[in-house]
Fold Beta-galactosidase.
Amino acid sequence: MRYFEDLTPSTGAREPRAWLRSSRPRISLNGRWDFKLWDSVPSGEPVVGEGWGPIEVPGHWVLQGYDRPRYTNTAFPFPIDPPYTPSVNPTGDHVRWFDLPADWPIDGAILRFEGVDSAFKVWVNGGEVGTAKGSRLPSEFEVGSLLRPGRNLLAVRVHQWSSGSYLEDQDMWWLPGIFRDVTLLARPLIDDVFVHASYDHVTGGGTLTVETEPGAVVRVPELGVVTEPGVPVELAAVEPWSAEVPRLYDATVEVPGETVELRIGFRTVAMVHGVFTANGRPLFFRGVNRHEHDERRGRALSVDAMRRDLVLMKQHNLNAVRTAHYPPHPAFLDLCDELGLWVIDECDIETHGFIYTDWRGNPADDPDWAPMMLDRMRRMVERDKNHPSVVIWSLANESDRGGNFGELAAWTRSRDPGRAVFYERDRTYEFSDFYSLMYPPLEDLEAIGTRTEDVTTEDSALEARRRALPFILAEYAHAMGNGPGGLADYQRVLERYPRLQGGFVWEWIDHGLLLPGATDHVYGGDFGERLHGTNFCIDGLLFPDRTPSPGLTEYKKVLEPVRITGLLTIENHRTFTSTDDLEFLWSVTADGVEVDSGRLEVPEIAPGASACLEPPTTISSEVERVLTVRAVLAKDTAWANAGHEVAWSQFVLEQAVAVSTGSGLPVVDRGEVLRLGGGEFDRTTGRLTRLYGQEVDGPQLDLWRAPTDNDNGQGGRNGVTQEWRAAGLDRLLHRVDGVDVLDDGLVVRTRVAPEGLGVGVRTTYRWTASDDGLRLTVDVQPEGEWAGTAVTPRCGSWPRVGVRLELPKALENVQWYGGGPGEAYADSRDASRIGRYERTVDDLQTPYVVPQENGARMDVRWASLTDAAGNGFRVTGSPHFQLTARRWTTEDLEQARHRSDLTPRAHIYLTLDLAQNGLGSASCGPPTRIGLEVAPYTFTLTFRPAGSKSVDNYFP
Ligand code: IPT
C-alpha cells in the first residue's frame, strides 16, 4: 500500500516532544524553494528540471498560482472510500539547496516540519528520510547521517490527498503545501521538557516540577530557584498565571552545551463539584473559535497576524479561544501565554464528511484508525504541554461517537492529569469532562443551566455522569454575513447559571481569499466547481483583512467584564482582578454635544463585587441630555494603551421637549405640480419630486431588504427569506388610489401588493407643512390573509417597515444624532451609542464579502443629508427611526455576489425605517427571536432645510 494511503502516521519520524526555544544552532529553511506541481503522484525522487517554478515556503501552492484552492463545508472533495485517494491527487515537489558551514554540528541533526498538508515524503541529498501525515502537527526526522558540510539538497514531495485527509474535514479551504516553518536543528542535548507549575490558592504558594534530561539544571532566577529535574520545589509565594493577569516567570533548563528558555506560569485547573476552576475560582469563557486564516497566505500565517488576532481579542473583552479545529502554529500559544487567554487546544481530527454515509466507515469508530488518531493527540499534547494558557485538550471536532476517542482520552489523562479533556459530538460525553453543544436555541441553554435538559443517552450510568458535568457552549452565534444577532440574550443566560461556563462564538475571521492580482475575495463556487460550500466559511467577526466587523463590536459590548448599570452601579464580573486598573470617566451631552464631563471617584471593587455611586449632578436643558459613563484602562498594558475603553453605559437624563410645527400652510395648486411648504408633488402619483430645492423621488413604502445569510437560514431551515419570497415581499407593486388636496395638507392613498397574490398593504401618506417644516405621517395597514391560506403561505414577519427616497447623488454627507457609529439591528444593538456622527454615504456601508443588507443606524433622532456646499435637508423622526443610505438599490445589493458587482448609480437611496426584522443566527442556528410582525404601523417624519436654524427638537 502506498505510504500516503496506509494507516501508519509516519515512517522514520522521531517521538513527539515539546516545542522548545533552545540555544543549539538552528537554520531556518523557510524562503524560496523550487517547485513543480503534478496532477497525480509521480514516481522517483524529485529532480529540478523543466517546468519547475519558484514557491515561497511556508505557503500553499494553490495561493501562489499553481492549481486553485477549494472550499467544501462538510463534504470530502473525493469519493468516500477510506483510506484511498483519487488518482488525480495534486502533488507538489518542493526542492531547495542550503549551505552548512564547515563547523556546523551535523551529527544527530534534526529536520523539523511544523506543518505540511496533508502527507509528505522527505529526501536529503538523495537519501530517503521518512514520511508523515497530520497536517497541523509537527514532524521531526534525524538527518545527520545524510548531511555534509557545504551544499545540501532537500526535497519534499507533498500530496494534497491522503488517508489523513479523512481525518481533516474541518470546514475550511483545502490548502495543500508546506505551510509552516521548516528548520534544521542541531542535535538536541535536552530532548524534551515537561513543566508542572501549580498554584495553591489557599496558601498562595506554588509547586514547580520540571521533567527533563537527568543532570540538567533548572533555574528560575526571579524566584531564586536552582534545582534538578523531577524534584518538586515548594515555593512559599508565587504570583499565579491567569488570562486576566498572565504572570510569567522566565526559566532555563541547562546542560553543558545547551540552554532551553522557558516561560513558566503557575496555575492549577481542577473540577470542583462539577465546576471547572482555575486557581480556586470558577472559570467563565468569553470565547471565540479561531481558524488560522490570512486573506493572501491562507494558513501560512505571519506571527504579526497571530499577535494582531490576540490583541484584537483582548481589546474586545474576549478571554478565551478554541483553536478550531486543529492545533495552531506554536508561536500562537506563546502569545496566548504572554497576553493572557484561556485556550482549548483542539486536535487535528474531524471526520464530518461521513455524515454522507450515515457515519458508516467513520474512522473514529474503527480500531484500525486508532494509531493515526492517537498519534495526532500525542503530537499535540507533547508539543503544547508547557503552555499555561492551555487548560483543556479537545480530542476532535464533529466526528460523531467513536471508540477511538476512549483511547485518546485515556492516554491524555495519564500523560497530563493537570488539564481537562473535551469532546462535544459524542452525546454520551463518556470521554469528555464537559457537557457541550453547538448552536442550541436559548430555551435549551436555559434548561441546561437549570439542569432540566432532555436525556441525551439511554445508558443511565453515562446519563447520570453527564448530568453532573459543567457545560461549555462550544459554538454559537454564527457570525456569517450580517450578524450574529442575539449575542446579548445568550450572554445573559450563560451568566445566569453556574453550570454554564461560557461560550465560543463561531467564528473569529472570514475565510475570504484574495488570489494574486484579485480584488474580490473568493469563496466556494467561484471556480465553477460542482461540489462546494459556497460562502459558509465567510462567517467571522473579522473581515478577511482582519478589520473588526460590527459583530465583534457588539460582542465586545456584550462581554464587558465590568458593568455600569442603574444610576449608578458598577459591577465587577472579572474572576481574579479588582477594578484597580480602571479609570471611570463621565460626560453629559445635550442634543449630542458635550456640555459637561469629569472623572468618577470609584472605590476599588473586588472581583464579583459591586459598588453604588452618586451620579454626577448636571444642569437641565430643553433638549435631550445623555450621561455616558466609561471605564478605561488607567495604564498601558501589553494589548492596549491607557485610555482604552473596556466598558461603557448611557443614561438618558432628560428627554427633549416636544414643539409643535405651527399652523398649517395650504397646498398651492400649480396644475401638474402641487406645492406644500418645502415640498413639490406630482399631482397624479402624489410623489414628492422636490424637497427644499433638491430633486427627489419618493417616499415610498419599503418592506424589503437584501436577504442576509442569516435571513436565508441553512438549506432553507430556520430562515425567513423563503417565507418572505412566498408572500411576494420581493415583488411589491404600488398603486395610487387617490391624491386628495385638503385644507391643511395633502393625502396620498395607495395600495402596495405583490404580483400574483391577494394580500396587500393600504398605505396612506399624509403631508402637512408649516414654516418650521414639512411633515409626513405614514400609515400602514396590512390587508388579507398574511397569516396564510391555501394559496398564500404563512408570513409571520416583514423584513422592514419604512420609506425609501431617491436623492441626488451629491447629498452624500450624512450627519445624524442617534445610535452609532456603526450599524445596528434589533437584536444586535447593544454596541450602538447615542451621539452625533458624520459619515459619507460610502462610509455607511459595511463591506460584507457577500453583499447583503447592511449599514442601518438605529435610534436616529434626526439626520441631515447635504452636498459639499451644505445644501440638502434634515429629517426628524417620531418615533426615532433607522437610517440606511447607499448608492445602489436594495435589489442591486440582493443580486450582487461579490463587492465589485456593486456599481454606484446616479442617485442615493435613503431608507428611513420604523423597524426591521432582527438578524439572528439562522445560517447555522435557531430562528431569529426578534421578528417584525405583520401589523398596522404609523410613523412620522419631519423634513426641514439643511442647516435650518429652527429648533432641532424631535418628538419623544
Ligand atoms: C459546526 C462546525 O463545527 C464548524 O466547523 C463550522 O462548520 C460550523 O458548524 C458552521 O460554520 S458543525 C454544525 C453542523 C453544527
